[in-house]
Amino acid sequence: MKKVFIAGRDEDKKRLDKFLSSQLSDISRSKIASLIKKGFVKVNQQFLKGSYLLSTNDKVEIKIPEVDQRLKPYNKPVTVLWEDESLLAVYKPQGLVVHPHGQNKDKTLINALLYKEKQLSDIDPERPGVVHRLDKETSGVIILAKNNKVHKLLVEQFKNRQVQKEYYALVWGQPKNDQFEVNLSLRRNKKNRLKMEVGLSNSKSAHTKIKVLQRLDNKTSLLSVSPKTGRMHQIRVHLSFLGYPIAGDKKYGKKDNYKNLFLHAYRIKIKHPIAGNFLEFKAELPEYFKKLIQ
C-alpha cells in the first residue's frame, strides 16, 4: 500500500518521522522509523533520514509493505498474572523472546499468548500487544495491551516516564554505597549494532537508580535496580560500566560459569489507562535465582 502526503505550512521544519507519525496514527513510531531506515519512504523522490526537516510543499511518499498477520500459535506454557478487558500482565520466562523478529517468527511470548487465544492490540501487526519489552535472557513481568486505544495510552505512559519498574540483579562486586544513581547517556556500539555503550555523542540520556539489598559471601551483591528511562540494555550496560557486571551476562559481563542471566523484572506499576487507578504487578524470582542467593 502506497500513501502520498504534501507538507503544509504548519509542517515546515517538522521532522519527517514525526510528520508521518501524525499522519499515520494507526502505525507505531518505531514502525515508521523502521520503514524510513529500510527505504520505504521518499521525500521529493529522495531517501532521507527520519530527522530530515520538512519544507512546505515537500512531497512525502511511503510504501507500507503487506504483512502476513497470521502469526502461528505456540504451545508453550506462560503464566498470566492479571487480566481484564484492557490489558494483560504476564510472567515472561528466561529464554523466551517477546515478539516475532528476524528468524524467530513462531516461538515467542506473543505466539504463546495467541495459543491461549488472548486478544491483543494490532496497531503493529508484527508486534501485537507490545508496549514495552524485556531482553530474551531477562525473566519477569511484562504488560501487554488488548486493544488499540489502551495500546496508545500505555505507550504514552512509558514515553512520559510515568511507569515504575524494579529489577533484581545479581552482580559481581560489592558497591560501597547502599544507594546511588547513574546518569550516563547510551548509544549503539559502533562496531556491533546489537550492543549498546556509554557515550557522549549521538547518544540518549539514561538514568538508573540502584539500591544494594544484600552483599553475599562470594563477592557478589543482590541489587534492586529502577530504570527511569527505557534504553536498550540500559541496566546491563550501566552496571558493567561501573564495574559491577551482572552474573551470567555473556554480552556485557565477565566470563563466568553461569548459564543464566541473573536479571529479573520483579515489579511494575502503571496507571490503568481506562479506570484510572494504579496497578502494581510482581513476578517472583525464578528458582535458579533463589537457589544461587541462598
Indicate the structural class: alpha+beta
Look up the CATH topology of the largest domain: Pseudouridine synthase
Task: Tell me which oligomeric state these chains represent.
Answer: single chain
- Corresponding CATH architecture of the largest domain: 2-Layer Sandwich
Rg from Cα: 21 Å
Helix content percent band: 10-25%
Distance between the termini: 57 Å
The CATH class name of the largest domain reads Alpha Beta
The parts where pLDDT drops under 50 for at least 5 residues are none
Estimate what percentage of residues fall within beta strands: 25-35%
Query: What is the CATH homology-level superfamily of the largest domain?
Result: Pseudouridine synthase
Number of structurally distinct domains: 3
Mean pLDDT: 93
Biggest β-sheet: count, sense, barrel?
9 strands, mixed
The gross shape turns out to be globular
User: Helix count?
Assistant: 6
The beta-strand count equals: 14
